[in-house]
Amino acid sequence: MCDAVMPVCVGINGFGSIGKAVLFSSFTEPTVKVVAINDASMSIAYIAYLLQRESPLSAEDRASVVVVGEFICIQGSHKIRVSQKHDLVDIAWQDAGVHYVVECTGLSFTRERCWGHVTGGAKGVIIAGQSADAPVLILGANEADFKVCPVVCAGLPVAVALAPLIRFLHDQYGIEEFSYTVIHGLRPAEITAGRSKNPQDWRQTRVDIGDIVPYIHTGEKTMDKVFPALVGRISGSAFQVPVTRGCAVDVLVRLRQPVSKELLDETLKGVATGRLSEVFLYLNEDFISRDCMPNGKLYYDAASSHALREGEAHKLLLWVDLDGSYAKRLLSLVVFFASAGSQ
């Protein structure tokens, strides 16, 4: 349980790859504490097993993980209530001391469907994925326009990673076109990860460890909501490749105001230690995908980027640890959401 002087208490609904990443990331975030998990298809014993085997906890903490009734206990003091409810109203978040819920099932993508969390006692809900009608909130991109409401949408992982950079480039130089290709490792078939829901997309049924597989990417829907002035100017595609860690994003951006590669690099280096210091990192070194860290930041690979047509366009190479960084950004969103709701 949490009280007013403790970190923001979080509940996770859905313990797939994103839900698990949110829990694991919370262990290094003193401002939040996960106190409840609901997953209709996952047993408490299995969640405890994942904590013992895969979590970033210390060896001592992993060894201390035990199941006591409906709780998973870590070192005896950190208790996480686990439930298997299908109806959101029945989860009773308030009884577990939850303030805000991160919706990770990929099933409750509307405000109406998520309202069951609020009825169950949560102060607010953050949808980890896209939503048909909930407002999109991405820190570093549109929080200045945020109006407090009970349900918000975080957007897809790639959109969350790219949006702050897009905001900065558009404010600084004006964007005529922003086209990107995402290249990441094979992922579980989860809607929250942006994987195709199209039953006719037969390629998804054949994904194997040795394949390069294109898939339907819908991140533009998030971008259009965050950047209404850029509707039709942002496009994306994605490929799954046989790597175990890290995600590369190849970007072609055409700018309204031309800028040299040298000046752009200096500007991005400055913003990485200033305005975007929490979400953006400047690199000028030999970097590969396994070097990505789940720190919530998008890496700009200056050494692998270059200018075109005398600075009218730029090819940018970006890196990100997709799930880990997305989880980090979700937790930052929880803290912002809680702070905005208390004002």
TrEMBL record:
Annotated site (Activates thiol group during catalysis): 184
Gene Ontology biological process terms from the UniProt entry: glycolytic process
Keyword flag NAD: yes
GO annotation, cellular component aspect: cytosol
Database matches in InterPro entries: GlycerAld/Erythrose_P_DH, GlycerAld_3-P_DH_cat, GlycerAld_3-P_DH_NAD(P)-bd, NAD(P)-bd_dom_sf
Keyword NAD: yes
Domain Glyceraldehyde 3-phosphate dehydrogenase NAD(P) binding: 8-149
EC numbers for this chain: 1.2.1.12, 5.3.1.1
Binding site for NAD(+): 39
Top-level taxon of the source organism: Eukaryota
Molecular function in Gene Ontology: glyceraldehyde-3-phosphate dehydrogenase (NAD+) (phosphorylating) activity; NAD binding; triose-phosphate isomerase activity
One Pfam match: Gp_dh_C
Keywords, in A-Z order: Isomerase, NAD, Nucleotide-binding, Oxidoreductase
Record family assignment: Belongs to the glyceraldehyde-3-phosphate dehydrogenase family.
Protein name: Putative glyceraldehyde-3-phosphate dehydrogenase
Organism this protein belongs to: Trypanosoma rangeli
